[in-house]
Amino acid sequence: MLDINEELSKFEFIDVESVEEKIGRIPDDMKNAIDLYNKALDDLRSNNEDIAIIALKKAIAIYPAFYEAMNLMGICFLKLGDEDNARHMFNKVIQMDDNSIRASKYLDQMDGKVPSEEVNANKSKRMRKVATTAEWIRSGLSPEKNNPYYFKYILGILIGIFAMCLVWIIVPSGSPVNINIGDLFKKAVDTSPELKKLETENTELSTRLNEANEALMQANETERQLRDQMEQYIHWSAILRNLQNLYWEEKYKEVVIQIERDLAGLDMPGDIAYEIDELNSKCKPRAVSQFYESARAIYKSNANSRSLDLYKEAADEFIMAIKIIEEMDSKPSIAVDAYYYGGKAIALSQYPSKEAAEEEALRCFNAVIEIAPRSQMASYARSRINDIESGKAIKH
Q1: What is the tens place of the pLDDT at every residue in 368-394?
Q2: Staple partner for 252: which of 69, 81, 140, 286, CB 3.0–4.6 Å?
Q3: What pTM value is reported for the model?
Q4: Do 280 and 290 have their domain in common?
Q5: Are 9 and 105 found together in one domain?
Q6: Burial status of residue 72 (CB atoms within 10 A of its CB: 0-12, 13-18, 19 or more)
Q7: In this structure, are residues 293 and 319 in contact, taking their beta carbons and an 8 Å threshold?
Q8: Residues 168, 249 within the same domain
Q9: Domain count along the chain
Q10: Which of 83, 111, 139 is the last residue of a domain?
Q11: Which of 93, 111, 129 corresponds to the end of one domain?
């Protein structure tokens, strides 16, 4: 019968620093998995089996080949009285690692098949037998220590052939003793089916070995892809957290700029993309006024220098505000001002060309007239349209 408390005492904490001293630096995900494993051992000492199982599940999710964590989880389930899940974990270890002696032992003891002392004794006996057999085979197949040992065998073969030929010459043809050298070669030919059988088995073993190597390569490639996916997920999670922090700081404009300009068109995990889209939808209506205020400040600061670069910088901010306004079902109160001053900044920037800038400015001025046809701003917009169409320069 399996003594759960005794088996739990056999699990020890893993010292990451000691492991790295022996085998070199290990990946960060494996370190995280080991930390969770050590935490689970702490929880078990406090009789918090449920919390320990949660930590072990996370450790196995990070590093699926963590067999020690799987075995420990199986023992946790047994301590909770959940024998089905315990068996499931031990069988999972055995399926993933044929040499998992610990999991096999746990299952045998759960079924009451063999006591642990007898298991160890039988295993030691089998190991001694294998070692003895291996030593016998090695000594039988190993060459003699004298370097020219093969001359002795070649000389013996030549002497045997000479003696056989001598007997064949001496014995008369009518003698009842019939020496037929061909029968010797016939016997060798008769053994060819066994040789063919060995060759067939060797071919099958080679094929299985090649298949196993291919499976191993595929498994390594799959593990590499999973690591890449995990690294990508961690990268995008950090970006999402940064955007959420900006949102809580009410920096809506910065959130929209990063999403619309920096992250547009990039491939990201589906759930991360959904969260970013939701965040963008919440920030856009609140970012309109921030874009407008920023654009107006830049535009006013350029009253004396009339720099084309500053006009373009202001125009870019106005364009972002106008783009969001055009996506909204109902226009905000600053829509008319955004279109009017945005049209002026765009026209004065002359970017990417004077003609292209004036064409976009005309679109903005017409939008002012369409939204508020009887307003003072609509009157200003008509005057700017007349200036452009008559070839006059638009004043700051």
Answers
A1: 999 999 999 999 999 999 999 999 989
A2: 286
A3: 0.45
A4: no
A5: yes
A6: buried
A7: no
A8: no
A9: 4
A10: 111
A11: 111
